[in-house]
Structures are given as C-alpha cells and as structure tokens.
C-alpha cells in the first residue's frame, strides 16, 4: 500500500519572545489532501505556529519542511512561490481597493513579465498574461459567490463578505497548502455554513491541503481529517477528531472539565448548611 505523501513536516519547533516560550518542541505532519485542524485555548500558540510556517516568524529551534524542502531561511514571498497561501485572524485587506483588485494582489508573484516587457505592453504577451490572470480571478469570485460586490471597495463590505474576499485572495495564489487562521470567527450561523462549504470544496475541487485554526468545535469535528491540540505552546494531543475529543488531557486543558470536576469535589467536601435550630 502506498504511503500518503507528507506535504508539511514540523519537527521540534520552539519559539521564544524574550522569556516567554510561545511554542515548545512542537512536532507533527500534514498529509497531502488533508483538512488538518489546530485547536487550543486562547494564547496556546496556534497563530504563532502558522506564522512560523508562513514565514512571519522564525523559530528558535526546529525544522519546517514543505514537500521535503526546508522552509527556514526562506522569505514569505518565496514560500508563496513554493505554494503556501495564508489568511489572517485579523483581516488584512486593502480597504480602499475593490474586491477584484484585492484578489489580483494575490497573483502578483505569478506575473512573469518585467518592467521592460511592461513598457511594450501591447506588443508583448503582457496583455494576454493580464487577461489570463483576470479570468482566473473571475473564476474564484464565482466560486466564493461574491460577484455582486466584485467592484465594491473591500472596506465597505460586511465582516462575513470581507472574510470571503480574504479567502479569495489566498486562493488566488494557487497554493498547494493553504493556512486558515480562524476563517469563521465572528460569523453568524449562516455565514459559518457557507464558509465551511467553501473550505471543503477547496480540498475537493482545488486539490488544496488545508491547515486550519478554528474555535468552533462543531466545525472542527465535522470537517477535519486530523486534529492537534496546543496548550501553553505544547502539543498535548493529536489524532482524529473523535480521538482528540475523548483525550483526558484535552478535556482538562481545553474543555475545562478539570475545573468542573474540582468544583464538584469541593462542593461534596463542604458541610451542608442547616437552618438554626434544625437537628439540634
């Protein structure tokens, strides 16, 4: 039986900010075609981990390989060229630019023509290249169902639509691996259902491998092939969603069952109060 291809390999990654250890010896791998989720309490190191993979942070120790190639030392743009896309927890759109132009920004690294050929725009292949890029962007706009706002300034859109535009820009990079940082945060139920459908289709129709941070446990369980859990920068569990949800460490650290159990034990240990004069 053929072994699944390892798209991403993270080995022994640690990250410190002064005396604060954001990540502590984190190791895992993601297979091609997976929808892989990272969960954990606020401040667990989830976004720091994505920042190490995308190139915004450089870990103090460890190794990160994409399709077997070492990423450390490579710039964010180099990683985009290799096939890694990214969305952000806090929206990073150009508010004054149209939806169409925001998405076109995502294709900048794919442009082949330089300044000289740009000067010869009409005599060279630059115009044909631009038309091909615009055609691809229109396909992404159709896929994410944002045709009705394609010419609107991104900053005027609702929060849910801006989330979709940011996803569109990341998809426009044509990544093999896409990193989604809380893609459904702040959305209502209908918006979450739409976004979940788009994310599943990215894997099935666009053949993308997906690494996602998400707090909605219902979404994580429904969509993920595998899950890892971080707590205070350490990886405390990993496996299928069902395995992770049943893990005692996860219940204590993430679901708060330890606190509930302690509260129950303390309540049982306390003497029950009786009204004065009763049982005397």
CATH architecture of the largest domain: 3-Layer(aba) Sandwich
Strand/helix succession: EEEHEEHEHHHHEHEHEEHHH
Tally of separate helices: 11
Radius of gyration: 23 Å
- How many independent structural domains? 2
- Strand percentage: 15-25%
SS-derived structural category: alpha/beta
At CATH level 3, the topology of the largest domain is: Rossmann fold
Under CATH at level 1, the class of the largest domain stands as Alpha Beta
Number of strands: 10
Q: Please list the strands of the largest sheet in the order they lie side by side.
A: 6-7-8-3-9-10
Q: What would you give as the CATH superfamily of the largest domain?
A: P-loop containing nucleotide triphosphate hydrolases
The rough form would be described as: globular
Attribute tags:
alpha/beta; 2 domains; four-stranded antiparallel beta sheet; disordered C terminus; 10 strands; 11 helices; about 280 residues; Rossmann fold; six-stranded mixed beta sheet
Structural features, described:
By secondary structure, this protein is an alpha/beta fold. The chain has two domains: 1-83 and 175-266, Rossmann fold (3-Layer(aba) Sandwich), CATH 3.40.50.300; 94-173, no CATH class. The protein contains eleven helices and ten strands. It has a six-stranded mixed β-sheet with strand order 6-7-8-3-9-10, sandwiched between helices. Strands 2-1-4-5 form a four-stranded antiparallel β-sheet, with helices on one face. Strand 9 and strand 10 (234-239) form a beta hairpin. Helix 3 packs parallel to helix 6 and helix 5 (126-143) crosses helix 6. The longest helix has 18 residues, at 126-143. It is globular. The N and C termini lie far apart (77 Å). Residues 113-123 and 258-280 have low confidence and may be disordered.
């Amino acid at each position: 039986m053929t072994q699944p291809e390892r798209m991403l390999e993270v080995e022994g990654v640690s990250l410190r900010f002064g005396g604060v250890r954001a990540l502590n010896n984190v190791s895992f791998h993601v297979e091609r075609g997976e929808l892989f989720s990272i969960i954990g309490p606020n401040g667990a190191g989830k976004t720091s981990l994505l920042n190490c993979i995308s190139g915004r942070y450089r870990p103090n120790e460890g190794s990160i390989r994409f399709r077997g190639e070492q990423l450390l030392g490579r710039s964010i743009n180099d990683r985009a060229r290799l096939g890694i896309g990214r969305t952000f927890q806090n929206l990073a759109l150009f508010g004054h630019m149209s939806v169409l132009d925001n998405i076109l920004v995502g294709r900048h690294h794919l442009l082949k023509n330089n300044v000289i050929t740009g000067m010869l725009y009409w005599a060279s292949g630059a115009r044909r290249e631009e038309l091909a890029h615009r055609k691809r962007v229109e396909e992404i706009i159709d896929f994410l169902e944002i045709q009705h706002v394609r010419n609107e300034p991104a900053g005027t859109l609702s929060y849910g639509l801006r989330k979709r535009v940011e996803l569109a820009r990341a998809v426009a990079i044509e990544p093999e691996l896409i990193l989604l940082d809380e893609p459904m945060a702040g959305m209502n139920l209908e918006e979450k259902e739409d976004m979940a459908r788009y994310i599943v289709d990215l894997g099935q129709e666009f053949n993308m491998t997906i690494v996602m941070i998400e707090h909605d446990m219902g979404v994580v369980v429904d969509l993920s092939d595998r899950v890892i859990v971080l707590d205070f920068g350490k990886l405390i569990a990993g496996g299928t969603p069902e395995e992770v949800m049943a893990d005692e460490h996860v219940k204590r650290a993430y679901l708060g069952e330890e606190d509930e159990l302690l509260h129950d034990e303390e309540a049982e240990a306390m003497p029950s109060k009786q009204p004065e004069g009763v049982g005397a």
